[in-house]
Amino acid sequence: MEQNERDLVLDAGVLPAVDSIVRDARAPVRVREACAEAVAALVRFNKDVFLVPPMGPTARTLVSMASVRF
Q1: Longest CA pairwise span in the chain (Å)
Q2: I need a surface site. Which of 18, 64, 65, 68 has the fewest CB within 10 A?
Q3: SS (HEC) of 3-69
Q4: Each residue's pLDDT tens digit, 11-59
Q5: Any idea where the domains of the chain sit in the sequence?
Q6: What is the pLDDT of residue 31?
Q7: Is the separation of the CB atoms in 62 and 36 below 8 Å?
Q8: For residue 51, what pLDDT is reported?
Q9: CA quadruple 56, 59, 33, 14: dihedral positive or negative?
Q10: Rounded to two decimals, what is the model's pTM?
């Protein structure tokens, strides 16, 4: 991901927005799954910027969501 694209994503607050939806148990499952995919895509594009300590709760939620599917 280019620096200017990364700055736009960070400045827009995309990660906190999708993170809050992933952790909201009241949100529809399909919406939470789509947001989880967005979080995964952001981390894959640039794990140095998007993989930070506050991602702990999100990681636990993602593992929990995955365990429900299997």
Answers
A1: 39
A2: 68
A3: HHHHHHHHHHCHHHHHHHHHCCCCCCHHHHHHHHHHHHHHHHHCHHHHCCCCHHHHHHHHHHHHHHH
A4: 888 878 888 898 898 999 899 889 888 888 877 777 666 555 556 677 6
A5: 3-69
A6: 93
A7: yes
A8: 55
A9: positive
A10: 0.65
